[in-house]
Design goal:
heterodimer; A: 701 residues; alpha+beta; Aldehyde Oxidoreductase, domain 4; 7-stranded mixed sheet; 27 strands; B: 160 residues; 5 strands; 17% strand
Chain lengths: 701, 160
Amino acid sequence: MKPTEITRRELLTAAGLYVMIPVEILLAQEPERLPARAGYPTDFNAYLRIGPDGRVTGYAGKVELGQGAMTALAQLLAEELDVPYERVTMVLGDTELCPWDMGTFGSLTVRQFGPVFRAAAAEARAALLEMASEKLGVPVQDLEVRDGIVRERRNPERAVSYGELVAGRRIERRVSHATVKAPGAFQILGTAPSRKDGLEKVTGRAIYAGDVRLPGLLRARILRPPAHGAVLRELDTSEAEKIPGVQIVRDGNFVAVLHPQWDLADQALKRIRAKFEFQEVPLDDSNIFEHLVKNAPPPHTVHQQGDLAVGEKLAQIRLEATYLNSYVAHAPLETHSATAVVQGGKVTVWAGTQTPFRLKTQIAETLKIPEQNVRVITPYVGGGFGGKSASQQALEAARLAQLTGRPVQVVWDRAEEFFYDTFRPAAVVKIRAGLDAEQRLVFWDFYVYCAGDREAQQFYDIPHQRTLASGGWGSNPPGLHPFVVGPWRAPSVNTNTFARESHIDALAAQAGIDPVEFRMRHLRDPRMRRVLEAAASKFGWKPMKLPSGRGVGVSCAMYLGTYTAMMAEIEIDRNSGEIRVQRVVLAQDQGLVVNPDGSRQQMEGGIMMGLGYALTEEVRFRGRMVLDRNFDTYRIPRFSWMPRIETVLIENPEAPASGCGEPPIVNVGAVVANAFYDATGVRLYQLPMTPERVKQALAKT
Amino acid sequence: MVRTIRLTINGRTHEIETDDQRALLWVLREDLNLTGTKFGCGMGLCGACTVIVDRQAVRSCTTPVSAAAGKHVLTIEGLATDGQLHPLQQAFLERHAFQCGFCTPGMIMNAYGLLLQSPNPTRQEILDAMEGNLCRCGSYHRIVDAIEEAAARLRGGKQQ
């Protein structure tokens, strides 16, 4: 294969000093002023601009976290406009250039924003066709578009390009009847072109928020308390000030050390003598679950049907269990980073964030300046997983830029990343359920504390059931958690799926029925049945009674409109207590697949990341102190963990595109726990399934 | 100690007056604006800062710049030559062996170091050599495939 050529200009940029984005160029490309109202604009010019050379620039408030938004959105735009994918460039997450967006989370980019973006492109295409019709004197129905050129079907010589039609202006024409293409007409959707962010990422030219370089830029290191809620009582910065070039900024409890070099600012920070005062909170990772159950807010009823009392009377076998999971960190490889500059009352912030528009409002509030004087630019983001929905670092950079009058960069170190992370909440799920004389599920009583209610509701067919949820990853009563919690890839669903699918498996074991067969007997939804069949077929599932001793497991989930079934095979080292996942099969029906390779990347990545919360990841803490500070004690998946992974994408293009970034991860805890039971006859009730917990569980038998 | 350090980076010689105990990572990123080398953990635990010093892959966040004095440093920015991507870059690009891309320069440089020492590694040797490089997005399978493919291409190139 021919190696990709890099132009001379690109090489110069790669070796060059500054990566400033020239503001005048950005302004010249500006498609349209943002509307004041919060919601997607109706004018399609907000989403795209066609250059005189026929190049198309797409604008979206989404950001590129690695999930492939840039590529998928470029595909949608190219498809509906009928221009080559290679000719499309995407501008993402810039609050001045891009249409408003709520944020990049919840696997919403293709599922929810995708239709808006497609419709805009389809309307632009229809408008361009009308303009071409007038220019060429040919009725619209006799025209066709290929590669951005409109031609008369019978006389291809009569042609005009998009670039010529638009001539660098915005398109004033509006078309009310434009429709998007039917799946049968797709040429670019459903294919896997080269990722838009690829070349920059393999050459080191991809710019993240901490890579922005501005003349006079200062790096800030901020004094941090030893525990959440601690108050600064004593401060001595005299030793720090001895480092040449150091500047100290203090604003109440907020103390920062600034220096042109990050490491020298860090050295100075370490020389600061500070005393903090804080209250001891008698909580740690062992007593937290009791505390949560005792102090969680009153539950709300998520779902209720039939009559639990009636169901319980019908039950011949009853099974009750409590499932636990610890706090889990996001731990993106890029720590929270931001660069801010204040110029003429206007502040520009480059931030690694999942929520640039919300951040814009927060910066305006923090600096007490009007929102229109704030611009947030989101360069590439080095992983988010929900953790960069919170952007404290960007507020810190903006504040310091305002206080010093200099451009300021904040790049958190790994300890700060763990300390300020908005962890996935520790949670407790209590389930009571029963089988009737025919081994059918007759009642199901599910109560989730602190994880949240997403996908808490049962999807297996059970006549008498109730689902209660108390607390969640959003707002919580003060003191419930010792630190901030927040959304973590598939918020609440990892917890609820672990509990539900573990318990379903335990009931299958009680019934003496193969766990796949047992699920099938209680599934009506044809899409769920189909993914389970697809997974079983790929895996080569052989019906068995639990435990079979083989170490294979199954788990199903439905989330964001996507159906998933996962199967896994594991090995257990009974001496060390270590679980090794050998093989994982994931079948997924996500409706229309915009980019099959992009979906498979999410599936493979979701499985790998999921192994972390299944096997090792839990935040250790004492009171409001976070004890994990780096990857030595907080262990995330690495190369040696790699199972064999097989992914199956169900063809279902007539169903709307549903979420893909989050659903692949939700089954991992349960599938490993179920495989463990199959291997040993022992059930694990707590995530992560660490060697210590494995050994303890095995010792009990 | 502040002194003048001479080192060659991506084929160009630099003289830098600085505290010689500073980490090579920060001299690259802050003094020379070579931002392709990433800060991930600061303790040599994640591999995002990996560069080559005299044919060895090192963690630049725990390597004092004095240790690179008089030596040849290769960073991700210096890997493509004559306008062409290195086979490792090409294979990572074609196989989409990255997602967020933050670990990618370190992955590629660590693999480059491996292939310098062992041009024909087994899959297990690749796994062992890459064990200290973390990818939170979970692109591990694709990365191993890309390294295998690049190794094959490099061997093929030498035979011609």
